[in-house]
Amino acid sequence: VIRVDTLHGEPLAILFHYTCHPTIYSGGHGVISPDDPGLARALVEKTLGCAALFLPGTCGDIRAGRFDFQKSATTCDRNLLKQCSDELGREVCSIAHTCPTKPDDQLQTTLNRVVFTITRPDRAELTAQLNRLSAADRELYAPPLQHLLEQTAPNAVPTAEHVTSVKQAVRIGPVAFVFIPGEPVQAIGYVAAWPC
């Protein structure tokens, strides 16, 4: 939690970070929802009387509920959504009340282009990944891997694709944030989790 105050010591904005996919009440339920970060943000804004900004963390496979690929929906409901968002919002407010602040006039930003190399696996590698899945991982990973396998031509060879994107950095006083689109950390964790 980062608290930004006015020169008079009143909260101007709260930035909070939480490492969990916001997929408790996803689009599979037939609604458009800001999920737990949005509801937690609203609670923080109401309680502290200032703007609240949510910064997603490196979520990896962390989510409050399991995703059912067969039904394209999570196993969660509105009660869990309210419980998680209230708990997150209250904790952010609790921390924000105790955050020390001091005057600082440093605000810097930068934007750079970066090139990522994405290698698409062939059918043999996808089949090997499916076969290496443990029983616990099969429910979560098998459906997307099976879908990828079905979309991969029988004679396809591994190919590398270069994707140009942007990297942005923002420095507020002594704290710096680096933003990149997508979920490369999740992809790295996904590859690292496979048995050798």
Summarize the structure.
This protein has 196 residues and is of the alpha+beta class. It has 5 helices and 8 strands, in the order ββαβββαβααββα.
Describe what this molecule looks like in 3D.
By secondary structure, the protein is α+β, with helices and mostly antiparallel strands. Helix content is 36%, strand content 28%. Strands 1-2-3 form a 3-stranded mixed beta sheet, covered by helices on one side. α1 packs across α2. The relative contact order is 0.15.
Shape: flat
Order of helices and strands: EEHEEEHEHHEEH
- The SS-based structural class is alpha+beta
State the end-to-end CA separation.
Answer: 38 Å
Task: Write the topology of this structure.
Layout: E1 2-5, E2 11-18, H1 35-48, E3 51-56, E4 67-68, E5 73-74, H2 78-98, E6 107-120, H3 123-132, H4 135-151, E7 159-172, E8 175-179, H5 184-192
Parallel strand pairs: 2-3
Antiparallel strand pairs: 1-2, 4-5, 6-7, 7-8
List keywords for this structure.
28% strand, 3-stranded antiparallel beta sheet, 196 residues, alpha+beta, 3-stranded mixed beta sheet, 36% helix
